[in-house]
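Re-running the complex after MR caught last week's input typo. The corrected sequence lines follow. Everything else is unchanged.
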Amino acid sequence: MDIFIEPIGKLVNEFSKLPGVGKKTAQRYAYKIIDMSDEEVREFVEAVTGVKRRVRYCEICGNFSEEKTCGICKSRESDAICVVKEPKDVAAIEKLHEFKGVYHVLHGVIDPMAGVGPNDIRVKELLARLQKGNVKEVIVATNPDVSGDATAMYIAKLIKPLDITVTRLAHGIPVGSEIEYTDDVTLTRAFVERNKI
Amino acid sequence: MDIFIEPIGKLVNEFSKLPGVGKKTAQRYAYKIIDMSDEEVREFVEAVTGVKRRVRYCEICGNFSEEKTCGICKSRESDAICVVKEPKDVAAIEKLHEFKGVYHVLHGVIDPMAGVGPNDIRVKELLARLQKGNVKEVIVATNPDVSGDATAMYIAKLIKPLDITVTRLAHGIPVGSEIEYTDDVTLTRAFVERNKI
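Corrected-run output:
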Protein backbone atom coordinates (compact mmCIF):
# COMPACT_ATOMS: atom_id res chain seq x y z
CA MET A 1 0.00 0.00 0.00
CA ASP A 2 1.20 3.49 -0.78
CA ILE A 3 1.87 5.74 2.18
CA PHE A 4 -0.20 8.50 0.58
CA ILE A 5 -3.61 8.29 -0.97
CA GLU A 6 -3.55 9.21 -4.63
CA PRO A 7 -4.48 12.94 -4.53
CA ILE A 8 -1.88 13.62 -1.83
CA GLY A 9 0.77 11.57 -3.65
CA LYS A 10 0.03 13.53 -6.79
CA LEU A 11 0.40 16.89 -5.07
CA VAL A 12 3.64 15.80 -3.36
CA ASN A 13 4.88 14.84 -6.81
CA GLU A 14 3.92 18.22 -8.28
CA PHE A 15 5.57 20.18 -5.46
CA SER A 16 8.71 18.06 -5.96
CA LYS A 17 9.06 19.66 -9.39
CA LEU A 18 9.79 23.06 -7.83
CA PRO A 19 13.52 23.88 -7.66
CA GLY A 20 15.29 22.45 -4.61
CA VAL A 21 12.20 20.73 -3.24
CA GLY A 22 12.63 17.11 -2.11
CA LYS A 23 9.99 14.60 -1.06
CA LYS A 24 9.99 15.71 2.59
CA THR A 25 9.51 19.39 1.81
CA ALA A 26 6.91 18.59 -0.86
CA GLN A 27 5.03 16.63 1.81
CA ARG A 28 5.03 19.60 4.18
CA TYR A 29 3.69 21.84 1.42
CA ALA A 30 0.97 19.31 0.58
CA TYR A 31 -0.15 19.12 4.23
CA LYS A 32 -0.27 22.90 4.30
CA ILE A 33 -2.56 22.94 1.25
CA ILE A 34 -4.85 20.38 2.91
CA ASP A 35 -5.00 22.60 5.99
CA MET A 36 -5.88 25.71 3.96
CA SER A 37 -9.43 26.93 3.68
CA ASP A 38 -11.23 26.66 0.34
CA GLU A 39 -10.83 30.42 -0.05
CA GLU A 40 -7.07 30.27 0.57
CA VAL A 41 -6.65 27.46 -1.94
CA ARG A 42 -8.69 29.41 -4.47
CA GLU A 43 -6.37 32.41 -4.04
CA PHE A 44 -3.29 30.21 -4.33
CA VAL A 45 -4.54 28.59 -7.54
CA GLU A 46 -5.64 31.95 -8.93
CA ALA A 47 -2.10 33.31 -8.37
CA VAL A 48 -0.56 30.34 -10.18
CA THR A 49 -2.86 30.53 -13.19
CA GLY A 50 -2.77 34.34 -13.12
CA VAL A 51 0.97 34.39 -13.65
CA LYS A 52 0.61 32.08 -16.63
CA ARG A 53 -2.25 34.11 -18.09
CA ARG A 54 -1.03 37.64 -17.44
CA VAL A 55 2.75 37.58 -17.70
CA ARG A 56 4.24 38.10 -21.12
CA TYR A 57 7.45 39.69 -22.36
CA CYS A 58 8.04 43.36 -23.10
CA GLU A 59 8.26 43.88 -26.87
CA ILE A 60 11.21 46.22 -26.43
CA CYS A 61 13.45 44.74 -23.74
CA GLY A 62 12.13 41.19 -23.24
CA ASN A 63 11.53 41.64 -19.51
CA PHE A 64 8.40 40.30 -17.79
CA SER A 65 5.46 42.57 -18.51
CA GLU A 66 1.70 42.65 -18.26
CA GLU A 67 1.39 44.93 -21.27
CA LYS A 68 3.11 45.19 -24.64
CA THR A 69 5.75 47.44 -23.14
CA CYS A 70 7.10 46.98 -19.61
CA GLY A 71 7.03 49.64 -16.90
CA ILE A 72 10.76 50.30 -17.15
CA CYS A 73 10.79 50.86 -20.92
CA LYS A 74 7.69 53.02 -20.61
CA SER A 75 8.99 55.28 -17.85
CA ARG A 76 12.72 55.64 -18.43
CA GLU A 77 14.68 57.60 -21.00
CA SER A 78 18.28 56.48 -20.89
CA ASP A 79 21.40 56.26 -23.02
CA ALA A 80 22.54 53.13 -21.15
CA ILE A 81 21.27 49.61 -21.78
CA CYS A 82 22.05 46.79 -19.38
CA VAL A 83 22.11 43.41 -21.15
CA VAL A 84 21.14 40.38 -19.06
CA LYS A 85 20.49 36.70 -19.64
CA GLU A 86 17.06 36.33 -18.03
CA PRO A 87 14.17 38.47 -16.78
CA LYS A 88 14.97 37.48 -13.20
CA ASP A 89 18.34 39.20 -13.57
CA VAL A 90 16.45 42.47 -14.15
CA ALA A 91 14.69 42.01 -10.78
CA ALA A 92 18.02 41.30 -9.07
CA ILE A 93 19.54 44.52 -10.47
CA GLU A 94 16.43 46.67 -9.93
CA LYS A 95 16.51 45.70 -6.26
CA LEU A 96 19.76 47.67 -5.89
CA HIS A 97 18.22 50.99 -7.07
CA GLU A 98 21.69 51.63 -8.52
CA PHE A 99 21.17 51.39 -12.26
CA LYS A 100 18.72 53.92 -13.70
CA GLY A 101 18.91 52.88 -17.34
CA VAL A 102 16.94 50.41 -19.40
CA TYR A 103 17.46 46.70 -19.99
CA HIS A 104 17.74 44.17 -22.75
CA VAL A 105 16.97 40.56 -21.88
CA LEU A 106 18.70 38.04 -24.16
CA HIS A 107 16.61 35.07 -23.00
CA GLY A 108 19.66 32.88 -22.99
CA VAL A 109 23.39 33.00 -23.66
CA ILE A 110 25.51 31.61 -26.46
CA ASP A 111 26.34 28.03 -25.59
CA PRO A 112 27.58 25.91 -28.54
CA MET A 113 27.63 22.75 -26.41
CA ALA A 114 23.89 23.15 -25.83
CA GLY A 115 23.31 24.14 -29.45
CA VAL A 116 22.49 27.76 -28.62
CA GLY A 117 23.92 30.19 -31.17
CA PRO A 118 23.69 33.98 -31.49
CA ASN A 119 20.50 33.66 -33.52
CA ASP A 120 18.75 31.76 -30.76
CA ILE A 121 18.97 34.66 -28.30
CA ARG A 122 17.76 38.24 -28.64
CA VAL A 123 20.97 39.68 -30.13
CA LYS A 124 19.52 41.09 -33.33
CA GLU A 125 16.79 42.81 -31.34
CA LEU A 126 19.60 44.46 -29.33
CA LEU A 127 21.36 45.58 -32.50
CA ALA A 128 18.12 47.01 -33.87
CA ARG A 129 17.71 49.07 -30.70
CA LEU A 130 21.30 50.32 -30.87
CA GLN A 131 20.98 51.32 -34.49
CA LYS A 132 18.33 53.85 -33.54
CA GLY A 133 21.27 55.86 -32.32
CA ASN A 134 20.79 57.38 -28.87
CA VAL A 135 22.51 54.66 -26.80
CA LYS A 136 25.95 55.59 -25.46
CA GLU A 137 26.77 52.61 -23.22
CA VAL A 138 25.95 48.92 -23.21
CA ILE A 139 26.62 47.21 -19.89
CA VAL A 140 26.85 43.47 -20.38
CA ALA A 141 25.69 41.78 -17.16
CA THR A 142 25.71 38.12 -18.19
CA ASN A 143 26.87 35.60 -15.59
CA PRO A 144 30.65 35.27 -15.07
CA ASP A 145 30.86 31.76 -16.54
CA VAL A 146 32.09 30.35 -19.86
CA SER A 147 28.92 30.99 -21.86
CA GLY A 148 28.23 34.32 -20.12
CA ASP A 149 31.76 35.52 -20.96
CA ALA A 150 31.54 34.24 -24.53
CA THR A 151 28.25 36.07 -25.03
CA ALA A 152 29.73 39.28 -23.62
CA MET A 153 32.70 39.01 -26.00
CA TYR A 154 30.43 38.33 -28.96
CA ILE A 155 28.23 41.32 -28.20
CA ALA A 156 31.24 43.61 -27.64
CA LYS A 157 32.67 42.67 -31.04
CA LEU A 158 29.32 43.18 -32.73
CA ILE A 159 28.80 46.62 -31.21
CA LYS A 160 32.33 47.92 -31.79
CA PRO A 161 31.62 49.50 -35.22
CA LEU A 162 28.70 51.47 -33.75
CA ASP A 163 30.92 53.64 -31.54
CA ILE A 164 29.12 52.68 -28.34
CA THR A 165 31.00 52.01 -25.10
CA VAL A 166 30.62 48.38 -24.02
CA THR A 167 31.31 47.58 -20.38
CA ARG A 168 31.06 44.44 -18.30
CA LEU A 169 30.33 44.09 -14.57
CA ALA A 170 33.52 43.95 -12.49
CA HIS A 171 34.71 40.62 -11.14
CA GLY A 172 36.55 40.38 -7.88
CA ILE A 173 36.45 39.44 -4.24
CA PRO A 174 32.89 39.61 -2.88
CA VAL A 175 32.52 42.42 -0.34
CA GLY A 176 32.75 41.09 3.20
CA SER A 177 34.48 37.85 2.25
CA GLU A 178 38.09 36.84 2.87
CA ILE A 179 40.95 36.44 0.44
CA GLU A 180 41.84 33.11 2.00
CA TYR A 181 38.47 31.64 1.11
CA THR A 182 38.03 33.24 -2.32
CA ASP A 183 38.19 30.66 -5.11
CA ASP A 184 41.21 30.72 -7.44
CA VAL A 185 39.38 31.93 -10.53
CA THR A 186 37.79 34.87 -8.70
CA LEU A 187 41.06 35.79 -7.01
CA THR A 188 42.86 35.72 -10.36
CA ARG A 189 40.20 38.00 -11.87
CA ALA A 190 40.57 40.32 -8.88
CA PHE A 191 44.28 40.65 -9.69
CA VAL A 192 43.71 41.19 -13.39
CA GLU A 193 41.03 43.82 -12.78
CA ARG A 194 42.86 45.52 -9.89
CA ASN A 195 42.22 49.27 -9.52
CA LYS A 196 44.42 52.22 -8.61
CA ILE A 197 43.72 53.62 -5.15
CA MET B 1 8.22 50.98 -8.75
CA ASP B 2 7.84 47.46 -7.46
CA ILE B 3 10.52 45.00 -8.49
CA PHE B 4 7.85 42.52 -9.60
CA ILE B 5 4.85 43.14 -11.78
CA GLU B 6 1.63 42.42 -9.94
CA PRO B 7 0.89 38.82 -10.99
CA ILE B 8 4.44 37.73 -10.11
CA GLY B 9 4.37 39.61 -6.80
CA LYS B 10 1.08 37.91 -5.98
CA LEU B 11 2.44 34.44 -6.69
CA VAL B 12 5.61 35.14 -4.68
CA ASN B 13 3.32 36.17 -1.84
CA GLU B 14 1.25 32.97 -2.11
CA PHE B 15 4.33 30.72 -2.18
CA SER B 16 5.63 32.57 0.91
CA LYS B 17 2.67 31.12 2.81
CA LEU B 18 4.08 27.60 2.49
CA PRO B 19 5.98 26.45 5.59
CA GLY B 20 9.63 27.51 5.70
CA VAL B 21 9.45 29.45 2.43
CA GLY B 22 11.00 32.94 2.43
CA LYS B 23 10.83 35.62 -0.27
CA LYS B 24 13.89 34.33 -2.13
CA THR B 25 12.64 30.76 -2.34
CA ALA B 26 9.13 31.92 -3.23
CA GLN B 27 10.68 33.90 -6.08
CA ARG B 28 12.47 30.82 -7.42
CA TYR B 29 9.21 28.89 -7.32
CA ALA B 30 7.38 31.69 -9.13
CA TYR B 31 10.00 31.79 -11.90
CA LYS B 32 9.66 28.02 -12.25
CA ILE B 33 5.90 28.36 -12.72
CA ILE B 34 6.45 31.03 -15.40
CA ASP B 35 8.84 28.65 -17.18
CA MET B 36 6.35 25.76 -17.07
CA SER B 37 4.26 24.89 -20.11
CA ASP B 38 0.52 25.51 -19.98
CA GLU B 39 0.01 21.76 -19.64
CA GLU B 40 2.41 21.55 -16.68
CA VAL B 41 0.70 24.44 -14.92
CA ARG B 42 -2.67 22.80 -15.56
CA GLU B 43 -1.43 19.60 -13.89
CA PHE B 44 0.02 21.53 -10.96
CA VAL B 45 -3.21 23.42 -10.37
CA GLU B 46 -5.26 20.25 -10.82
CA ALA B 47 -3.17 18.54 -8.11
CA VAL B 48 -3.72 21.45 -5.69
CA THR B 49 -7.47 21.64 -6.22
CA GLY B 50 -7.70 17.84 -6.38
CA VAL B 51 -6.33 17.46 -2.89
CA LYS B 52 -8.88 19.93 -1.60
CA ARG B 53 -11.75 18.29 -3.47
CA ARG B 54 -10.91 14.64 -2.93
CA VAL B 55 -9.27 14.34 0.48
CA ARG B 56 -11.56 13.86 3.45
CA TYR B 57 -11.18 12.03 6.73
CA CYS B 58 -11.89 8.34 7.40
CA GLU B 59 -15.08 8.00 9.44
CA ILE B 60 -13.49 5.35 11.64
CA CYS B 61 -9.91 6.46 12.30
CA GLY B 62 -9.79 10.10 11.16
CA ASN B 63 -6.91 9.53 8.74
CA PHE B 64 -6.83 11.11 5.25
CA SER B 65 -9.09 9.16 2.93
CA GLU B 66 -10.72 9.43 -0.47
CA GLU B 67 -13.69 7.35 0.63
CA LYS B 68 -15.80 7.09 3.78
CA THR B 69 -13.38 4.51 5.19
CA CYS B 70 -9.63 4.65 4.62
CA GLY B 71 -7.57 1.88 3.04
CA ILE B 72 -6.02 0.89 6.36
CA CYS B 73 -9.33 0.52 8.24
CA LYS B 74 -10.77 -1.36 5.26
CA SER B 75 -7.94 -3.84 4.87
CA ARG B 76 -6.65 -4.56 8.37
CA GLU B 77 -8.09 -6.56 11.23
CA SER B 78 -6.14 -5.80 14.37
CA ASP B 79 -6.43 -5.82 18.15
CA ALA B 80 -3.97 -2.89 18.39
CA ILE B 81 -4.82 0.78 17.82
CA CYS B 82 -2.10 3.38 17.48
CA VAL B 83 -3.31 6.82 18.62
CA VAL B 84 -1.68 9.81 16.91
CA LYS B 85 -2.18 13.56 16.86
CA GLU B 86 -2.44 14.20 13.12
CA PRO B 87 -2.95 12.31 9.86
CA LYS B 88 0.63 13.03 8.86
CA ASP B 89 1.82 10.99 11.84
CA VAL B 90 0.09 7.98 10.28
CA ALA B 91 2.17 8.44 7.11
CA ALA B 92 5.36 8.72 9.21
CA ILE B 93 4.60 5.44 11.01
CA GLU B 94 3.36 3.59 7.92
CA LYS B 95 6.67 4.34 6.23
CA LEU B 96 8.39 2.06 8.75
CA HIS B 97 6.35 -1.03 7.78
CA GLU B 98 6.71 -1.95 11.46
CA PHE B 99 3.22 -1.47 12.88
CA LYS B 100 0.56 -3.67 11.33
CA GLY B 101 -2.42 -2.48 13.37
CA VAL B 102 -4.94 0.28 12.84
CA TYR B 103 -4.87 3.94 13.81
CA HIS B 104 -6.88 6.56 15.57
CA VAL B 105 -6.17 10.19 14.69
CA LEU B 106 -7.07 12.63 17.47
CA HIS B 107 -6.81 15.73 15.26
CA GLY B 108 -5.13 17.62 18.07
CA VAL B 109 -3.88 17.17 21.61
CA ILE B 110 -5.14 18.49 24.91
CA ASP B 111 -3.64 21.93 25.42
CA PRO B 112 -5.40 24.05 28.07
CA MET B 113 -3.22 27.09 27.26
CA ALA B 114 -4.60 27.05 23.72
CA GLY B 115 -8.10 26.31 24.95
CA VAL B 116 -8.14 22.74 23.61
CA GLY B 117 -9.87 20.31 25.97
CA PRO B 118 -10.59 16.56 25.69
CA ASN B 119 -13.90 17.28 23.95
CA ASP B 120 -12.18 19.22 21.18
CA ILE B 121 -10.23 16.20 19.97
CA ARG B 122 -11.45 12.75 18.87
CA VAL B 123 -11.30 11.09 22.29
CA LYS B 124 -14.91 9.99 22.57
CA GLU B 125 -14.67 8.45 19.10
CA LEU B 126 -11.72 6.43 20.41
CA LEU B 127 -13.70 5.28 23.44
CA ALA B 128 -16.59 4.26 21.21
CA ARG B 129 -14.23 2.11 19.16
CA LEU B 130 -12.73 0.50 22.28
CA GLN B 131 -16.13 -0.29 23.75
CA LYS B 132 -16.85 -2.58 20.80
CA GLY B 133 -14.55 -4.96 22.62
CA ASN B 134 -11.90 -6.57 20.41
CA VAL B 135 -9.03 -4.15 21.07
CA LYS B 136 -6.26 -5.46 23.34
CA GLU B 137 -3.65 -2.68 23.11
CA VAL B 138 -3.71 1.07 22.64
CA ILE B 139 -0.34 2.53 21.68
CA VAL B 140 -0.31 6.26 22.33
CA ALA B 141 2.07 7.88 19.82
CA THR B 142 1.52 11.56 20.59
CA ASN B 143 4.58 13.83 20.45
CA PRO B 144 6.92 13.77 23.48
CA ASP B 145 6.05 17.31 24.62
CA VAL B 146 3.91 18.74 27.41
CA SER B 147 0.54 18.52 25.63
CA GLY B 148 1.42 15.21 23.98
CA ASP B 149 2.31 13.70 27.35
CA ALA B 150 -0.79 15.17 29.01
CA THR B 151 -2.99 13.71 26.29
CA ALA B 152 -1.34 10.31 26.68
CA MET B 153 -1.93 10.40 30.46
CA TYR B 154 -5.54 11.43 30.00
CA ILE B 155 -6.24 8.62 27.54
CA ALA B 156 -4.47 6.05 29.70
CA LYS B 157 -6.63 6.98 32.70
CA LEU B 158 -9.79 6.88 30.62
CA ILE B 159 -9.04 3.46 29.18
CA LYS B 160 -7.92 1.82 32.44
CA PRO B 161 -11.40 0.51 33.44
CA LEU B 162 -11.72 -1.25 30.06
CA ASP B 163 -8.93 -3.74 30.78
CA ILE B 164 -6.95 -2.73 27.69
CA THR B 165 -3.17 -2.41 27.77
CA VAL B 166 -2.08 1.18 27.12
CA THR B 167 1.49 1.71 25.95
CA ARG B 168 3.46 4.75 24.90
CA LEU B 169 6.37 5.01 22.44
CA ALA B 170 9.75 4.73 24.20
CA HIS B 171 11.79 7.86 24.79
CA GLY B 172 15.55 7.75 24.80
CA ILE B 173 18.74 8.49 22.97
CA PRO B 174 18.19 8.60 19.20
CA VAL B 175 19.97 5.71 17.45
CA GLY B 176 23.28 6.84 16.00
CA SER B 177 23.56 9.95 18.18
CA GLU B 178 25.96 10.54 21.06
CA ILE B 179 25.26 10.76 24.78
CA GLU B 180 27.37 13.92 25.00
CA TYR B 181 25.10 15.75 22.60
CA THR B 182 21.76 14.39 23.80
CA ASP B 183 19.64 17.08 25.44
CA ASP B 184 19.05 16.84 29.20
CA VAL B 185 15.37 15.95 29.07
CA THR B 186 15.93 13.12 26.63
CA LEU B 187 18.90 11.79 28.57
CA THR B 188 16.86 11.84 31.79
CA ARG B 189 14.06 9.92 30.08
CA ALA B 190 16.61 7.43 28.77
CA PHE B 191 17.66 6.77 32.38
CA VAL B 192 14.12 6.48 33.68
CA GLU B 193 13.11 4.10 30.91
CA ARG B 194 16.34 2.06 30.96
CA ASN B 195 16.03 -1.60 29.98
CA LYS B 196 17.62 -4.81 31.28
CA ILE B 197 20.15 -6.29 28.87
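None of the earlier attempt is carried over here. Residues 38-54 of chain A form the longest helix (17 residues). The CA atoms of residues 44 and 83 of chain A lie 33 Å apart.
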